[in-house]
Please model this.
Amino acid sequence: MAKDYKFYLAHMLKDIKEAELFSHGYDFEKFSKSSLVQNAIFKKLENIGEGAGRLPQEIRARKPEIPWQTIVNARNRITHEYFGINLETIWSIVKNDLPPLKKAVEELLRK
Model:
């Protein structure tokens, strides 16, 4: 039986919150020097992208302002092109892209 989309949204929300927690108190310079925090955040972004990829299209369509395919693509780059990861891009995702995604996921879970 296929999992309900709320299963994936709940896990995405958990991973977003953990990525926020892991980055709390860090600026880019400190982040760029901590392989521990980098790897923890990479894993959370992989999980978020995996969840986004498993959401049905009709659920994604409810939040067209969210670049769902870009999220999935980021997951694939982190997973498969590990040595080509740009830390500035990852930091930007955490600081600029996760907050609106978090809000959208919370709204989708409430519906």
The radius of gyration is 14 Å. Residues 45 and 75 are 6 Å apart (CA to CA).
